[in-house]
Amino acid sequence: MTEDYAARVHGNTIPKRHVDEFLSTGLPRGAGNCATSHHDAAPARRHRQQRRWATQIVLIHELAHRTCAERGLAPPSDVLPMQLLTIPETDVADLGSIVAAALAHSPAARALLEDLEREQEVGETAVRDYYDRNRDRFLTPEALRRGVDPFTAAEPSDVAPYDDVRDDIEQQLRRAATRRAFFNWLDQAREDVEYATGHEHPGDPSHPDHEHRH
Fold this sequence. Notes:
The protein is mainly alpha-helical. It has helices spanning 16-24, 43-70, 89-95, 97-105, 107-119, 124-133, 141-145, 162-189; strands spanning 5-9, 12-15, 194-195. The longest helix is centred in the N-terminal third of the chain and has 28 residues, at 43-70.
């Protein structure tokens, strides 16, 4: 019998129709991934990669929704938004197109990310260490106008005071830690996923069209 699911994890299935519904709206602009950037690829191959890519978005939404329930978070919308969204290229570069698209489309994924962020602790030592090791990132506008750069010895007055930039550094470090936590969660959540034929991860080398370009 033909499989009627796109993926199955822990006995729960994700129907193929969920992936088809997501694809029916078109692909998000700005994704920049293997599903949208290979316009020179054969149409059949491109369609297969789009389907595999979309499967990941729907899968992450479903996994995040279940994790939110396990964490006792207020239940996000059960329905994956189907409107066509523009995904910032900076998010694609930082997160990869699959995760960037999942966070853009899935309220559950965003709720989980926010919950993970609340768990991250950034100590004063880490913030100060980042400042001391990256002084070139905190050059004042006046120093930059004079041509001071990372390869030029800067005077103490050329660098913004620690207290002026401390909160921004802490926020950056917490954001990075949150993203690492999200990726760790996703790696574990996808460990036991079984994909139906034609819905494998687009970077899976076991199928001939695999692409590991996010």
